[in-house]
Amino acid sequence: MLRLLRPAEAAARRLIVVAARDLVVTLPPARPRKPAPQPAAPALRRLGIAVSPLATGAAAAITAPARPRPAPSLSLVDPIRLPRPRRHVPPHRAPRISFPGAADRRPLPQPPAPDDPLDATRLGLRLRALADALDDLPKHARRFARWRARRDREVTAGRVRRLSPLRPGRPPGARRSSTREIHEVLADLQWFAQQALARPDTS
């Protein structure tokens, strides 16, 4: 699934970049950050009233209604290529050592079987975000136009910010010697996205 999902996400991201090429948005002026509200516990302690941390947390949980989690959105920027992680040892092959000089006598977990169930929650959220981006492309093109405007404002202010939504080199999930249609679409959209991001020569 991930071998198909990664290039599909990268292709949709580049399609958004192409769709937002001629969009111009005006951002509202940046608002100053408000100071964090002080908790009421110190004020009560100054009055001689003892407040338990558990009671404070319970009261906050009661007074603050639970906000619904927003729907996932497709990321507008490519993930940065990280160095290759260290070798991972599965739990059923880990050394049974509890502390130096003593061996752990607990049995190791059994190796996973081919029909063991897996948690696909994260995978479902990514598929939902991808489907939402493809179903409403103008909405996500405006998202990218706002991201581009915020980036330009941060660069003008002298603050470091990521300049390009595309990572250098090959896009995520790209395969050079692949005959799958998604990889061919990704290669074409990579070129179109680079052309859309290229600044015109004004010299």
What share of the residues lie within helices?
A: 40-55%
Largest sheet: 2 strands, antiparallel
Q: Output the structural class.
A: mainly alpha
Total beta strands: 2
Mean pLDDT: 79
What shape does the CA trace take?
extended
Quaternary state of the chains: single chain
Low-confidence stretches: 58-62
> How are helices and strands ordered from N to C?
HHHEEHHH
Spatial strand sequence of the major β-sheet: 1-2
Explain how this protein is built.
- This protein is mainly alpha-helical and 203 residues long.
- 43% of the residues lie in helices and 2% in strands.
- The chain has 6 helices and 2 strands.
- A two-stranded antiparallel ribbon has the order 1-2.
- A hairpin with a 2-residue loop joins strand 1 (97-99) and strand 2.
- Helix 1 runs parallel beside helix 4 and helix 1 packs parallel to helix 6 (181-197).
- The longest helix has 20 residues, at 137-156.
- The protein is extended and about 65 Å long.
- The two termini are 47 Å apart.
- Mean pLDDT is 79; it is low at 58-62.
Short description:
The protein is mainly α. Helices cover about 45% and strands about 0% of the residues.
